[in-house]
Every structure is written in C-alpha cells, then in structure tokens.
Amino acid sequence: MIKYIVRRLLYLIPVLLGVSFIIFVLFNLVSGDPTAVLLGKNATARQMAELREQLGLNKPLLDQYFDVVKSAFTFDFGRSWATKQEISQMIIQGAYPSLTLTVPAFVFATILSLIISLVVAFYRGKGIDLFVRFMCIAGVSVSALAYILFFQYFFAYQLGWFEISGFEYGFPDFVPFIALPAIIFVLLSLGPDVRFFRTVILDEIYQDYVRTARAKGLSEVVILLKHVLRNALIPIITYVVIQIPTLILGALLLENFFSIPGLGGITLNALNSSDFPVIKAMAILSSVLYIILSLVTDVLYTFADPRVKLK
Amino acid sequence: MKENSLWKDAFKRLIQDKMALASLVVVVIYSLIAVLAATGLIASDWAKEVGASNLPPSAEHWFGTDIFGRDVLAKVLHGTQIAMSVGLFTSLIAIPIGVILGALAGYFGGWVDDFITWLYTTFSSIPNIMLLISITMILGKGLFAVYIALGATSWVTLCRLIRGEVMKHKEREYVQAAGAIGGGHFRKLFLHILPNVTHIVIINTSLQFQFAIKSEVILSYLGLGVQGEPSWGTMIDDAKLELARGVWWQLVGATAAMFLVVLAFNLLGDALRDSLDPKLKGK
Amino acid sequence: MKGLVLILSVLLTLVFGCSKQNNFDEREINLVSPEKISGFDPINASDKYSGNEAGKVYEGLFEFHPLKRPYELMPNLAASMPEASKDGLTYTFKILKGVLFHDSPAFKDGIGREMKIDDVIYSYKRLADPKLSAKGWWVLDDKIVGLNEWREKYSQAEATNYEEAIEGLKKIDDYTLQIKLKKPYPQFLYALAMPYTFIVAKEAVEHFGKEFLNYPVGTGPFVLPKFDQSSMIVYTRNPKFRTKYYPSEGEEGDDKLGLLADAGKKIPLVDKINVYIIVESQPKWLSFMKAKNDLIEIKDVNIQQTLTPENELRPEHKEKGMRLFMLPMLDVAYFAFNHENPIFKNLKLRQAMNLAYDRDGANKLFHENTAFIAHGPVPPGLAGNRKEFKNPYSKLDLEQAKKLLAEAGYPNGKGLPEITIQTRNETVARQQIEFFAKCMDKIGIKINVGMNTWPELVNKVTKKQHQMYTMAWGADYPDAENFLGLLYCPNQSPGSNGANYCNPEFDALYSKATILQDSPERTAMYEKLNEMAALDVPWIYGFNRTDIYLTQAWLKNYKVMEFNHNQFQYLNVDLEVKKQLSKKF
C-alpha cells in the first residue's frame, strides 16, 4: 500500500513537467510581450526593455523553462507581475472565499443528489422517477449566466432575501452573501449528479446479490440503503473526488457577479493581464491537487470495497 | 447477425420511450434549422434592421428586436446554426482523438498506455479555462478557434472511457479467438473491439453537444466567443446589460432556444445509455 | 430526514435573518470601485481607481481645488504655490510644518513622525528607481537635472543608492526644496498633484519591503492599517490629521447647490469610508438601488435607467431623493487607423470613413445622447479646443462619403480589403464595432470585429500588428498636450501614438508649443494643432463622453471631478436624511 502511494506520488513528477511545459509554451512563447501591459498607457520603449530584462524574459528559453519547472517543484511562485503581490498570499486570501462558496454548495449538492437518486431508483420507471429526472436535467439546461442575472435581480433585489453582492469573512457573516450563489451552484450540479448516481445505483440493483437479498425477504429500502449504496459507493466517490480541484478555482461566473474575492477572479485577472507567474501557480496548484485527489480516491476504494487491492 | 439485432433492439426501445422520441424529434428539428440557416434559406437576413431598437415581442416580431433593431427571432435561428455547428465540430475533433488514443492505450498497454495516460492526466489537470483562453489567444478569435479550443479540451473524458472499455474487451474470448485465427493488431482493434464500444461514443457525443453549446455561452461572456454574427452566447451576454433596463426578450429567446436543445440532448443521452449500455440490459 | 429538515431550517433562518441593515449612527460613506485594487504603492497608481484609493491615505504637494472649475491647482502638502525662476527651469517649494505620517510599526515606538523635505526627495527618487520599474516614471522621465543619470547609473547595479544627491533635487532646509528642470516642463506642477508623486516615508518602505504595497503609511485624511485583497476596503479617519479646512470659495453657483455649507469646517467630514469592489454592472446598480452605496458612476446601459429621454433624472429616482450629476469628461473616444498600413495613407479613404460613421446613431444607442461628437483630438474644456470649430468630417454624409471613396480608388468599396478593428473583449465594445460595421457597410466597406483580452490588444498595437483599433483616452492632467501627444510622431508605438501617425508639420509645431507656459500664444498654437489634426483625420473621431454620477440624497458636497483622488475628504453625510429616506428603499 505504502509502496503504491509513493509510486503514485512520484507520478506527480512527469505530470508537473508536462503541465509546466504546456503552460510555458502557451503563455511564454506564444502570447507575446507582457511588458507593455504591465507598464500602463504611458510606457516608453526604454522602460519596456528594462522590465523585460528584470523579469528574465531575455534569458534563453531553456533557462526560462527551467525556472518554471523549478517553481513547480519548490512551490515558490514569487510575486505577481501585475499586482506585485506575493502569490502564495494571493492564493491563501482567495482560497477562503472561493471555498466558503464552493465547499458547502458542493457537499450539499452531493448529498441532495444522492438522496434524490436513491428515491428515484426506488421508484424507477414510475412517474415520479421520470418527473424528478426531467426537472434535474431541465435545471441544468439553463445557462448559468441566465440563472445569475435573474436570481440576483429577483431574489436578492426584488425580494431582498439575500445580499446582492459582496463577501464577509467568518461564519455566519458570510452566509447571506454566499447563499444565493450557492443555490445556483446546487441547481447546476443536481442534473449531472443525479443522472450519474442513478445510473450507478441501477447498475447495482440488477446484480445477482440483490436478487439473493430480495429472495431472503429483505425489504427493498434495506437492500437499497445497505447493499446497493455500499457497492455503488466506489464510482460515486471517484466522481465526487475528481471534481474537487475545480472547487479550488471557484465558480468564475458566480464570483464575478456576486463580487466574491476568490481564486476564480484572480485567475481571470491574471489571464487578462499576462500575469504569467500567477497563471503558472494556479495551473500547478490545480494539477497537484488533481493528482493527489485521484490518489485519495484510489485509497478510499480499499475502504469502500476490501476486494480492491492496490498494486 | 448478433450485432445487427443489438442495434435494432436498442433502436426499438428508444422509439418506445416517448421522452426519448420527443428529444430525438427536437434534435432533428434543430439540425434542420441549422442546415437551413447555414444554406441561407432561413434567417439569412438577421443583420437587417426591421424596426426600432429594443421593441418588445409583437405579432410581427415574435421575440422583439435587439439594440440595433434586428429581429431577435432571426438571431435565435442563426444562433441555432452556430450552436449546432459548435457541437458538431467539437465532437468531430474530440471523438477521433479520444477514440484513437483511448483504444491504443487500452489495447497495447505498456509504455503506450503510460504515455497516453500521462498525456490526458496532464491535460485534465490544467484548468480548462486556461487552455480555452490561451488557445483562442493563439488562434485568434472566432468560430474556428472555438471549435478547436473546445475540441482540444473535451477529448479527455472520452479517451479515459474508451481506454477502460477496450482493456476489458481485450481479454474477452472473441478477441482472443480472432487472434488465434491470425488477426493482426489492427484487425483485432478496429474490426472486433471498436464496434463493441461504439455505444460509449454515441452517448458521449450527445453529452458533448450540450457541453459545447453551454461552453459557447461562457466563452462569449469572456469575450472569446463567436464574432461578427449572433450566437446564443453573445445574445445572453448582451442581456446582462439589457435586463436591468427591462429588455428581457433577447435573454428569454436565447435561453429558451438553448434550454430546449440542451434538454433534448441530455434526455437523449440518458435514453441512449439506457438502451445501448449492455450493463443495463435485462431490466 | 428529521435531521435534514432541522439543518435546512437553521440554514434558512441564518440566510434570511442576517441580511445586513443600513447604518444610521456612524458617519460613514459607502463607495464603489468597479475594478480590483492591486495595491497601494503610489508610484504604480496608474489608473483612476487605484489613484482614488491611494488618494485617501497619501497626499502630494498639490491638489486640484475640489470646487473651482476650470481645474485649478492649490497647495496641499506644499505651504504655498512655488516660486519659479524667470526661465521656468528652477522651482522653489516650501512644505507645511507639522504634518505627521500615520502611526505605523515602521516608525520608532510606532508613532508617525513629521514629514520633511527628505521624504519628498525620497519619494521622487523612488519613482525613478530602476529596480521598481514604476508605471509613473514617465512624469519625471527626462525632466529633472541628474535624475535620469542617477537612474541610469543604478540600472545595472545590485541596489539603488538613495543617499547619492541629485543636482536637480536640492534640499535647502528641512522644509524647502529646489528643483531644477532640464527643459521647460509647463505640466510639471500637474505631475506633482498626481498619485505617482504622493509622499511616502522611507522607514515604511524599508520596514515593509516588498509588502509595502499592502501597508499604506501616508499623511492623508484616512488610515488603512493593512490592505487585504477582499471585496471591501474600510478606511477610518486619521485622528492625527493636520488642521485643514473645507474651502470657502468655489465656482459660481456652488453656493446655491449647498456645496459651501461646510465652508471653513475641519476636514475630513466623515469618520469612515467603505469602498466595495463590484465589477459587474448589474450588482453595482442593484446595490445602489438598495441604498448600499452612496455614489455610483453611471455607464453604458444604466444610463437609460437613470435618465428620461430628455436627459433628466427619472421620477422614480427623484422620489427617493437621488441626485444626478453630469459633466463633460476630458476624454476622447476614437477609432485609430494604423498609418503604417499603406491603405490608410490615403486621405480620401480616411475622410470617407469619417463621413460614413453615424455618430448620432451611436450616441443614441450607446450613450443615450449624453456624449458630444468629437471634432478633434482635444476635448472641449481644455485650452486648444475652439468652440466654434466644427470638423467637416465629423458628420454623416453618405453621398459625399461614397464620392470620396470612389476618388480614393475604391468605388463602392471595390478593391478595398476587409478591415479588422481590434477592441477589448467587452460586450459594449463589441456592439460599438458591430454598429460601426453597419455604417461602413452602407458605403461598401467590410469591417470585422477583433476582440482581444487587454494584453492581446496592447500587444497588437505596440507591435503595430493592427489595421485599426478603438481607444478612449482620458486626461492625465488638464492640458491639451496630453491629447496632442497621441499624434506626435516620436510617441508612436510602443508609445501612446498607437496610430503611428507622422506629420512633420504637426510635430514641429507640437515641440514648440509644449514647452511654453500657459499663455494666449500657446493656446493659439494648441488650437492650430488641434485643427490641423482634425482635418487630416488620422483617426475616426468618436465622442467626448459625459461623466454621469448618481448620489443618494444624504451624500453631501459631491461635485463631479475628473481628477478626484483627493475628493473624498471633502464629502459629508447627512444621517437625518438617510434615516428618513431609508423607508423608501
């Protein structure tokens, strides 16, 4: 097991090399000279040349790539070119609002979807199954932008149930600020979640062991909750855990419209100002998370199903 | 032929499912509109000024007019063409890449598998938004860049699914048997295994379509979408400024058009899976 | 299931129970910044919004009078307006005594010390420090004797030596500074009112190091102990602020508007300022309508919600006591041709395109008729813009346009390649070009929209890879030089002349005019330059836009101000009115 974990962690090395390479090629080689943007509307050619030198853009490409790789493995991202802020601080400050929005919404959406899926699986093929599935899919068929525009106008402004925009630190102060975006987040997650969970649960329901259990006279509810859910847990865990890295980046649209100062906005600003160190940091951070979390999923498998052996 | 009856069977069941049938009809109608719009038979005059700016819906203009006095209905129809083409072309890009890489990885294993797994892990671990923005930066803006950007980011899921499925099939008797009678790798992979994983491609395509259509809206919000012609994305993006002044018809028009087709693709995807996925057979 | 219901009900009470109420006891004002603030280092405060934030904590030697128009400089940290030598090259500045920096751990015992002339010299040197690559360097670049040499000397060195004296920045005593200029620089005093030249304390810069940008330590009316990149910035009154009074005179009519009610009172007039960062226009507008903010800048779409077709405040806002402020801005919005592209060397083509642009239509659609058609590079309100001058090409005349296009060699657009106009990836920017394309279509010219992220646009323009692009230039200071420079050949890309326009006659007169002090002679030269540039149509002239602001009834002393980073100390709030009106929201 430990050997397996170590091997998987070592897998980070080639992936990080790949990520740094792609990011380097896309942003350093192709996207052009950032100095004009960084110096503002009255920049002089002289000053741009000086800044290029300072940022190390005159170094040989191989050296520049090596710098990217180095920061990928040391996690030392330095300072943002555009805001001159320390990137680790930016990430720490931005992660809090992003996560206060996405984590509760994500947990709530997952639990709610699981409950709904169990209910519809129980009533499979009946009217209620069709109706609930239809509603969930209908919910996700509306563009996020349309939800945001309408909900903000109606629930926050007209009815005054929520704050229109902004953010405050600390529980429960942030609740009125994140409630509405969180609700939108949940609405958008229900569709795909319920669809996936339901399929997985139905997969199990037609297995032999369920038939045996039924023959033994166990009630359908018990079978569903005790046997089916337990076996369906593996694919569900995979599906859930693999989504976690996307939570870190936050929900870009939601953050922008509800003025939540999270990582989504930081990333977008960085992309809009050629802020290469920040882009690099965000890409590396999310790929490290991705790898670690997929490892966590695999380890969780062994707990969910002792038959799975890691090798 | 066993193959044949499987597909026939699936199709039969699909037809019996009323919701799936309705979805299929919707998709066909949208495709028709898209083709008609692309050939210039309908909505070719979307750019024409037909009235004052921002007229509410009326008998003459069902969806009202936009800021330049253009007919919103014509724009929605033209947008249908854009949306469907985005779905189609991203699928055309993503499917071959996903299927070929997935099949190679699953079939050959070893270093081929290692390399391809590394490739898609790397790709999927970079936030999508960065790839989308940088690709549109490199290719310039416009529809073509949207196709490529969305295609290049959405092959990963399919690749992973196909790889898993091919791995499973590789060990099955019929493939072993084909090997025994002297079939080469190429023959085994393309003639025996791939037809058996087609259902994954079909299900995936239907979901790919709705993903692409929805992504176009986000790209338009970021100013990276279609340029110079109306798409649902640019219409919804316009609406973010119009809604507060009471101009709701452009938002409603584009959202409704999008809602219907995305819903149809989703339901169709579900129904296809229910009828095609062998695991769900026999329920 | 029971547990779930319980959790849900707790959540719901939390959500609906604690929506924040407005504050009626604290003397605070609530403002909005439509852009994220990246930090508080004055030398990088290049845009209006970071300047506004820096201006609450930092101060410069001069400031613009909050009421008088046209804009007039007055001493701020300076004790008086400076004495200039006859040749205009040597200035002697006296600064106020007893001005204290904010308390900060950077100082001994944490107590802010007195600001002295060394701080002024230090702050100006910082702007030139090659290690800092300040965005504001251009205001002193090649201006002060010895400063460029100092910058040059340390550009390759390990560290910059601030101890080294500079001839042009001479300390006479602790409160007197003599500045020697290399050449006449009539805009110099304006530069000393800009955020770039705000005075910082050496101890603070050294103590906080690279984190200095998050710990603003100034002499200003408000304090901010630490800046966090959040959705809100909270400033509190500086208890040790020097005695400074609200002005007792202003523009004619200010008295009637109640702008002189606080004359002679000690400022700042409020205890607290909250600045909310709201980027999207819908939440910004809705927050204002919920009375969460006291002041909002009205842009694009919100204009129609604010104004009646006659450009008056809509009755539903009037009823809530809101007040409307409109002032023509010192700015010019234009479509620039890239003159390095041989197509655009063709004067008749440029004229034809100017004549085909339906400015009235665009004004109606995008500005609700609040903008003014631009007739040249210099906006009205600056010396150099003659009111009577009307550009014959800043009007719609399709017949003439078609005729000129034919004479240019492209009858009905035949033979002319499609032209792509580059712009920012924003909704309104896209719509404006779509509208422009419609106009050009009428004479047979095909226009494409090129949308770009900001870095892409800047890159295309600085690398001269564009055919045309759109731009709106706002004044850095109230001097026509700031606008005419956009067409000065030596300023071409990567400088501010993104059109790469070169006209030797224009350049010769420009170099002569811009070194003159403000005088009738200079105004005449500026006028000539403006009209020369107008008739040669190096751009398609668009608009001089109007600043539109809406305030709540309880915000007092507000007056639209182009260079407004010092304005906030003069604002006041009437809590009685706020309490009464709040029922209406």
Largest sheet of chain B: none
What form of chain A results from the Cα inertia axes?
Answer: globular
Total domain modules of chain A: 2
Largest interface: A-C, 62 and 57 residues
CATH topology value of the largest domain in chain A: MetI-like fold
What's the gyration radius of chain B in Å?
22 Å
Secondary-structure element string of chain A: HHHHHHHHHHHHHHH
CATH class term of the largest domain in chain A? Mainly Alpha
Q: Roughly what percent helix of chain B? A: over 70%
Rounded Rg of chain A:
24 Å
| Strand residues, percent of chain B | under 5%
Say how many strands of chain B there are. 0
Assembly state here?
Answer: heterotrimer
The class by helix and strand makeup of chain A works out as: mainly alpha
Strand content of chain A: under 5%
- Give me the number of helical elements of chain B: 11
Q: Could you say what the CATH architecture of the largest domain in chain A is?
A: Orthogonal Bundle
Give the overall average pLDDT of chain B. Answer: 82
Could you tell me the mean pLDDT of chain A? 84
Q: What is the assigned CATH homologous superfamily of the largest domain in chain A?
A: MetI-like
**Portion of residues in helices of chain A?**
over 70%
Structure description:
The complex is a heterotrimer of chains A (311), B (283) and C (585). With 311 residues, chain A is mostly helical. Chain A has 2 domains: 2-74, no CATH class; 94-304, Orthogonal Bundle (MetI-like fold), CATH 1.10.3720.10. Chain A has 15 helices and no strands. Chain A is globular, with a radius of gyration of 24 Å. In chain A, 44% of the residues are buried. The radius of gyration of chain B is 22 Å and the shape is elongated. Helices cover 74% and strands 0% of the residues of chain B. The mean pLDDT of chain B is 82. Chain B has helices at 2-16, 18-38, 72-108, 110-125, 128-139, 143-170, 173-180, 185-193, 198-221, 232-242, 249-276. Chain C is α+β, with helices and mostly antiparallel strands. Chain C folds into 3 domains: 1-36 and 229-327 and 550-585, 3-Layer(aba) Sandwich (D-Maltodextrin-Binding Protein, domain 2), CATH 3.40.190; 42-207, Alpha-Beta Complex (Dipeptide-binding Protein, domain 1), CATH 3.90.76; 331-544, Dipeptide-binding Protein, Domain 3 (Dipeptide-binding Protein, domain 3, Roll), CATH 3.10.105. In chain C, strands 14-18-13-17-15-16 form a 6-stranded mixed β-sheet. A 4-stranded mixed β-sheet of chain C has the order 1-10-9-8, with helices on one face. The model of chain C has no long low-confidence stretch (mean pLDDT 91). Chains in contact: A-B, A-C, B-C. At the A-C interface, helix 3, helix 4, helix 6, helix 8 and helix 9 of A face helix 1, helix 7 and helix 14 of C.
